[in-house]
Design brief:
Blueprint (H helix, E strand, L loop, with lengths): L1 E7 L9 E2 L2 E3 L9 E8 L6 E9 L10 E6 L7 E7 L9 E6 L4 H4 L2 E8 L2 E6 L2 E6 L14 E9 L15 E11 L3
Antiparallel strand pairs: 1-2, 1-13, 3-12, 4-9, 4-13, 5-6, 5-12, 6-7, 7-8, 9-10, 10-11
Length: about 190
């Protein structure tokens, strides 16, 4: 299994005493459409921010290339997952998305499959094969730009404006454990 570990390390520069990692397929492989999924067990705790997401591979920069968040999770909301897209006119805090709340302990205690099924003019999000959100061009306030290659990123951030920063309740190390990542496409 792949394990991305977040650690507290007081020897790192002041104000940034944490280390973690990200893995991406940029420059290796990108896809247009298909089912993209990962089976993962999520970390938890204030300031912990795991994500499984995609960025447009057309070198236009962010948000012009687009972003598809298959899964975002902020540790202070241990039972909530987020699905979002970002593009010009709806990026950052104005991204278009939804969330799903699951029973307490579900995300940190067991593995689950997080997926999108992406086709021309539609993206659908799934938690354990149950659809919980769907977007079409009619649902976004500006141009739909999800019609070109995107590469995959998997990471665990520590801190940031949205999740906040670790506090005395946050335990380290934290682990994002990944059983697999799969991409399915029609021939």
């Amino acid at each position: 299994m792949l394990v991305i570990e977040a650690r507290e390390d007081p020897t790192l520069p002041a104000g940034r005493p944490y280390s973690s990692a990200r893995i991406k397929t940029q420059g290796l492989h990108a896809w247009t459409y298909g089912r993209i999924e990962a089976r993962m067990k999520l970390p938890y705790g204030q300031g912990i921010w795991p994500a499984f997401w995609m960025l447009g591979d057309n070198n236009k920069g962010w948000p012009a290339s687009g972003e598809i968040d298959i899964l975002e999770h902020i540790g202070r909301e241990p039972d909530t997952i987020y699905a979002t897209v970002h593009a010009p006119g709806y990026s950052g805090g104005n991204g278009v998305g939804s969330n799903l709340v699951v029973p307490e302990g579900t995300l940190k205690d067991d593995f689950h499959v997080y997926a999108i099924e992406w086709q021309e003019n539609e993206i659908r999000w799934f938690f354990d094969d149950q659809e919980y959100f769907k977007l079409t061009p009619a649902d976004v306030p500006s141009d739909w730009i999800f019609d070109h290659d995107f590469f995959i990123i998997m990471n665990m951030a520590v801190g940031g404006r949205w999740p906040g920063y670790p506090d005395k309740t946050t335990t380290f190390p934290q682990f994002l454990t990944v059983d697999y990542v799969r991409v399915y496409q029609r021939p």
